[in-house]
From TrEMBL:
CDD domains, sorted: cupin_yp_001338853-like
Residues covered by the Cupin type-2 domain: 34-104
UniProt superkingdom: Bacteria
Native source organism of the sequence: Allocoleopsis franciscana PCC 7113
Protein name (Swiss-Prot/TrEMBL): Cupin domain-containing protein
Keyword rRNA-binding among record annotations: no
Gene Ontology molecular function: any one: metal ion binding
Keywords: Metal-binding
Gene3D superfamilies linked to this entry: Jelly Rolls
Record's keyword annotation contains Transcription regulation: no
Amino acid sequence: MNERIFALEAYACFSDEKAVVTEVVITQNSSIAVWAVRPGQEVEAHCHPDGQDTWFMLRGTLTYYLGNSQRQTLSAGQFAIADQNQVHGAVNEGTEDSVFVSIYSAPKIGYAKASA
């Protein structure tokens, strides 16, 4: 990997239809993506059977799903860790666009829908 420094906001690609994820880099140990979530859009509840997903909020606020109908506000400057098989997801219930970085460890962590 030649490039080591990334301007993450440049990877935020918004859509009026749905939340958008853009892969930034994949290495042997992790995968990093940027999510762009407009007001009213959702990253549906899910889990990863083969790894951890860490979200770092760059901009805005999301209502983060913790599973078992629990939710918590996740704001710019905060991060949330979903370990292997822990339910997570979010909805933008605010009035501003939200951007967060998702760091998957290991890079191939699988995906399974779950209840919020």
